[in-house]
Amino acid sequence: MTEMTVLTKVRTAITIAGSIYVLAIGLLAVPYFQSHTVYLNAIRLPWFADFDAPERYGLALNKTYNFKIQTVDNETLGAWFILAESIYQTLPSHHTSPKPHIEHALRTRPTILFFHGNAATRAFKARIQHYSAFSSRLNVNVLAIDYRGFAESTGSPSEEGLVRDARAAYEWLISSGAKGEDILIMGHSLGTGVSARLAAQLSKEELPYRGVVLMSPFSSINELLKTYSVMGTVPLVKPLTMIPYAFNFITWALIHKFDTLSSVRQVKGKVLIAHAENDWDIPYTHSEALFNAFLDPLLPSVDLPSDLVSTTKEDWSAFTAQIAARKTQRENIVTTTRMTNFGVMEEFPGGGAPREREVTFVKMLEGNHDYVGVQEGLQDIIGRKFGLFTPPAPSASAAAPPADAGDSATESGSSTESGSWSPVVPPSDRGDWTTVAKIVDE
Question: What is the pTM of this model?
Fold first, then answer.
């Protein structure tokens, strides 16, 4: 085989590969293919899951209740409610349905409202590990839903649709006996975009929630496309930057944006961001960008020179002085804690103004993309930051059977120690949302 023949074959292979790449990227501009790429909801792992039997996937016998939640636009969502360990262990028998004990559990212990990432279902192994860890080690209830178009849920996924699903889940908890101050909103990967949108919506309507936890988040789908690499090595769309306006076309065609950076200024509750350095799917720089966005309103502004060529010495001195002042202010506000063999935690305290909420960023050495929440070190931080380790205040309802729980709920969820954001809003001001979420028994 001559050298010319080899070069011809190599050139042909590169051309074919390039054509396939351009075609695949071009399909992202088509809404149908874009939706399936963003959500991957057709990948329903584990295949043929039996959601009525959560025990098959590692959860304790009758600790989980499988049911449906109705949304405002009449979609039906598959959901699991997992009892907190302390509630589960006090049941008279583990051979009966957990359904009668849900109201008592909601009135007694805080609840994590969990929004998973793209692909798979609520029965996926990595997610089961999160439910187990949260319900046992943090001793909280967990409500996990499958968005529309996922698992056995009806409909097709969209950004606004997923936000409606999240709101329906929140309202189901409220209508079932939970207080807003006891609901900790938690999202992973794609679920962080959903969580941020829900928290911003609740903040705008002055409805309470305990806080927000964003695990392995992205700042926006647009920014994620710029940084995403297959298996952490092969950049997905970076080659498009070499073609004039090619990447601009892709961003213009995006219909699923999940712009968490835009939601930052609206979120009023306590926030915790967690990311692993060895995340191959979403770089931890996205979490750094989100943390800095929360911090930015507390720092002095910097006026960039409009024209570097004509900038005077005085203008440059003023510019560098602003940068120094911003750096000094950041060092005064942000507390950095280095934890041996675990990672680094940066945090700044909240204040009286809504934009001065307490925000924590935990950058861990390990956890990859899917297992951030099962790191016990992070669970400890979450437990302390959101008051989940605080024992419930003594009350007559704490030891009462579920049927008699009544309105004498404990006040532990609304304590200032939990750091929840809780405006005073009369129930009558909750609008039409109070009845949109309900159980639909099969």
Answer: 0.84
